[in-house]
Design brief:
312 residues, Arc Repressor Mutant, subunit A, D-Maltodextrin-Binding Protein, domain 2, 3 domains, 7-stranded mixed sheet, elongated
Length: 312
């Protein structure tokens, strides 16, 4: 293999990643023990080599261009692999330690993330996890969170979103409800049924149902006599008791479907999904304890996705 990088170029890549994480030449320079001018020149050499502008520069801060963001993600992963390889070879494996604060939505937290944490703690016993279950949007800085999982990515350009999975949606009802009110077979038939509704914490509006018809997703407003707010798992309890039809995530009701306490309806309109992503600030230095949790969750939930594809 011919040599592709010299030491100066590898150093420039490291300084580029540091600047991208902190969104500041000055902050990156302080961390690296250099002057801001030296960091700026190093990044400029990298841009000249690539023939691509990596940052949009302003008097107060810098931000990544689209090309810079893609390059940063790949460089950060590559540098992380180099560091881990060096530690493995030299025997200098330092276990991450400290506390990670993570905010989880109630449904995804209970059914997807919390069951994985014992295995993570077995692998990283020195990392403590402070879990907060809530469906509201959080302020990372004011509330000192490291990570959050959300089904709807906030319109905040300072956040990095790493997709965990596209979660399948389906419509269910209890056998009791279906005996009393019949089984709907069309979307128009929903108007004659009680549809259990969930109020979005961010707006107070009813979450529309997302169904798939003729190879495209459609949002459908629903009506019903029961609404639930704050904890979306309350809608599942209502459905089990026979309060009406419910659209929910398949991972929440898999056991109910197996046991027969809930039955899927409107099969031909299934197939819609909603994404869940890990969120974290792009302008904050990421401790090793946070990085290993991110990598662990992406890997484990990635395995879940692959198994689901094989089974189906």
């Amino acid at each position: 293999m011919s040599r592709h990088f010299d030491d100066l170029m590898l150093g420039s890549i490291e300084l580029f990643c540091l600047t991208a994480e902190q969104q500041s030449f000055t902050a990156a320079a302080a961390t690296a023990g250099l002057t801001p001018a030296a960091v700026s020149r190093s990044v400029a050499r990298l841009e000249a080599r690539l023939g691509v502008q990596l940052f949009v520069r302003t008097t107060r801060r810098v931000r990544l261009t689209d090309g810079g963001r893609s390059y940063f993600e790949q460089c950060r992963q590559a540098l992380g692999q180099l560091i881990e390889a060096e530690r493995e070879v030299t025997g200098e494996q330092h276990l991450p330690s400290g506390t990670v604060r993570i905010s989880l939505p109630t449904s995804y937290g209970h059914y997807r993330i919390l069951p994985l944490l014992p295995a993570f703690r077995a692998k990283y016993p020195a990392v403590e996890i402070d879990v907060h279950l809530s469906n509201r949007n959080i302020d990372f800085t004011a509330e000192d969170f490291d990570l959050a999982v959300r089904g709807r990515t906030p319109p905040d350009s300072s956040l990095v979103a790493r997709k965990l999975e596209d979660a399948d949606l389906l419509v269910v009802a209890s056998p009791k409800y279906l005996r009393l009110h019949g089984t709907p077979t069309s979307l128009d038939a929903l108007q004659k049924h009680d549809c259990i509704q969930f109020l979005l914490p961010s707006s107070g509006q009813v979450m529309p149902w997302l169904l798939r018809q003729q190879e495209r997703d459609i949002e459908l407003p629903t009506t019903g006599g029961v609404r639930c707010s704050d904890d979306i798992l309350g809608t599942v309890t209502l459905a089990r008791g026979g309060a009406g039809l419910l659209q929910t995530y398949r991972f929440i009701v898999e056991q109910d479907l197996q046991q027969g306490s809930l039955k899927e309806v409107l099969h031909k309109f299934a197939g819609a999904t909603r994404p869940f992503s890990l969120l974290y600030p792009s302008n904050r230095h990421m401790p090793q304890r946070v990085r290993v949790l991110i990598d662990f969750l992406l890997l484990r939930l990635g395995r879940t996705r692959r198994r689901s594809v094989v089974v189906s």
